[in-house]
Amino acid sequence: SQTIHQWPATLVQPVGSPLSLECTVEGTSNPNLYWYRQAAGRGLQLLFYSVGIGQISSEVPQNLSASRPQDRQFILSSKKLLLSDSGFYLCAWSQIPSGTTDTQYFGPGTRLTVL
Amino acid sequence: AQSVAQPEDQVNVAEGNPLTVKCTYSVSGNPYLFWYVQYPNRGLQFLLKYITGDNLVKGSYGFEAEFNKSQTSFHLKKPSALVSDSALYFCAARGAGGFKTIFGAGTRLFVKA
Q1: Minimal-distance CA residue of chain A relative to B42
Q2: What confidence tier does A41 reach under pLDDT thresholds 50, 70, 90?
Q3: Which helix (H) or strand (E) holds B20?
């Protein structure tokens, strides 16, 4: 069966510090991968998605970036964190090819607090 | 523009009573529709989906959802609510042939014992 991991689970970082959040998927190959941010325990904002290694699409201009160095690894980064980057970050995967039912399956999330 | 609306921020129901969480959508083409549940400080868990066929879809934990094409709705239902059903529920939609899944803002369900 497929599983998705995220770490760390929680993170407290000062403003201006760098960020690296990691997401890995097991039990599948060539998945679609997604990064979402959830603010104040409500709606989801799609940040990035990837359909393959090195292929990243950005949905919202911001000081975050994403990379996919391996097939089942998705990394969210920032060079300098802002207060507004605080939130709950969720990674998700779905099965390629797109155009199918595209059920997304979510990781446990990372709670980021920027002070 | 594609969108998903969950008109209620919160739904309150007594344990044992039926529950309904409302969702309407606007996507291009035939819709793929989903419901997810989120418990505090956890990721979203997939509950059920509608692709085609029977308008009544059954999912996990006794939940079901009814697709209504004319009303562009996909309401989540359960015949008898449990206190453990208290959580945040998200409706999501994607147009056939599209790539992005659009999520609603979420509805918080509170089931009182």
Answers
A1: A108
A2: low
A3: strand B19-21
pLDDT at position A22 over 90: yes
Among B46, B100, B106, select the one facing A46 at the smallest CB separation.
Answer: B100
Question: CA-to-CA distance for B62 and A103, rounded, in angstroms?
Answer: 19
A66: DSSP letter: E
CB < 8 Å to A55, chain B: none
Beta-carbon count within 10 A of B111 CB: 20
- Other C-beta atoms lying within 10 Å of the C-beta of residue A95: 17
Amino acid at position B101, single letter: T
Q: How far is CA A33 from the centre of its chain?
A: 8
C-beta of residue A84 within 8 angstroms of C-beta of residue A57: no
Of residues A59, A32, A57, the one with CA closest to residue A45 = A59
% of residues, chain A, pLDDT over 70: 93
How many residues in chain B?
A: 113
* SS3 call for A88: strand
Distance CA A18, CA A82 (A): 10
Beta strands in A14-86 (DSSP E): 19-26, 31-38, 44-52, 55-58, 64-70, 73-78
Nearest to A71 by CA among A35, A106, A101, A33: A33
- B49 contacts in chain A (CB < 8 Å): 101, 103
Helix (H, G, I), strand (E, B) or coil at B72: coil
Kindly state the tokens that stand for A30.
Answer: 């060539």
